[in-house]
Amino acid sequence: MTGKSMTYKKKAAILSAIVAVLALIYIMTFIFDPENRSSAAFAWLDNSLLVMADGLEISGPENRIALKRRNNVWLVADGTSEFPAKQDRVADLFALLTRKDNYPVRASSSEGIVRLGLTEESASRIIVRGGAGLPLLDLLIGGSNALGTEVYLRRAGWNQIYSAEDDYSFFTGLNARSWYDLRLFTSASVDSIQQVEISFPAETYILRRSGRGWIIPGKENTALNAIRVEATLRQLLEAEADNFGVNAPETIEASVTVQFGNGSTRTLQAGPLTELNTRYATVSGTPYFYLLTERTFNNLFREGSFFFD
User: Fold this and answer.
1) Which of 134, 157, 179 corresponds to the end of one domain?
2) Cα-trace Rg, the chain
């Protein structure tokens, strides 16, 4: 009798466990419905629509960024001002949105939308506008999975919830400054530079190309370290301001003029150090004002003795 009682209790425990599991599965179907076994291959934005795109609105947990396209150039709209955007970064975002991929369906219920952070109030968002401001794409980005490797996605107005590798949070997490194109010169190569004139309170000198090397006029008999010269010029071409400024410098304390092989020139002019340990600067050929930290300034304006062996 005791053996039969134990067997009964064991069976009852097993049945109870099975019932609990089935109940859990039943409850989960209200959040993750049976569609989670299916998937669809598509792109969020058809590549043919890119020609119409003239506006971007990107909302993240802490930032909201607006970009506009004018004359085929993307600009960051900051209040009443517009600043040049990093065109490559915009291209990377569009490459992500137009990439055809396989997106598993994870849910299609209102409970799932709330649970996965995909309501319009809680989600991050990427809106692509075109033409008369109509949205070509309104994509909501919700929470991530337990491992943090995938993110949940929903097109506004759709109930279906998909998942994908989290390449989206990078863009929604950027602040306005991260979108600014703050390059001071151009993306030209060092080989295209013929001469650089540097002037600041300590001295004024010229670096001039001579054959395969460089000279400082007036000190032709003193050998220059070509590696230091070219490394500094490369740093100059790749230099970025630390932010856009609101004013031009009242007085000019330093300047650097780069002359290229095609005859064009580009001049950076910087003002004195401010109380905030920054300098206002301008660059010829652009209407913008820039802010340089003292560290950036010192990297651009080196004493001539630095280039001697």
Assistant:
1) 179
2) 30
pTM, whole model, 2 decimals? 0.80
Q: Does any domain span residue 225?
A: yes
- Asked whether 157 and 125 are in contact (CB, 8 A), the reply is no
The pLDDT profile of the chain, 309 residues, written as one tens digit per residue, is 455 555 645 544 554 554 344 334 333 443 444 444 467 799 999 999 999 999 999 999 888 999 999 999 999 998 889 999 999 999 999 999 999 999 999 999 999 999 999 999 999 999 999 987 789 999 999 999 888 889 999 999 999 999 999 999 999 999 999 999 999 987 788 999 999 999 999 899 999 999 888 999 999 888 899 999 999 999 999 999 999 998 899 999 999 999 999 999 999 999 999 999 999 999 999 999 999 999 999 999 999 999 997
Question: Is 162 found in the same domain as 60?
Answer: yes
CA distance 164 to 167: 8
User: Do 167 and 196 have their domain in common?
Assistant: no
Alpha carbon distances (Å) from 206 to 56, 91, 230, 256: 44, 38, 14, 10
The tally of domains found in the chain comes to: 2
Q: What is the amino acid identity at position 226?
A: A
For 255, the domain range is 190-307
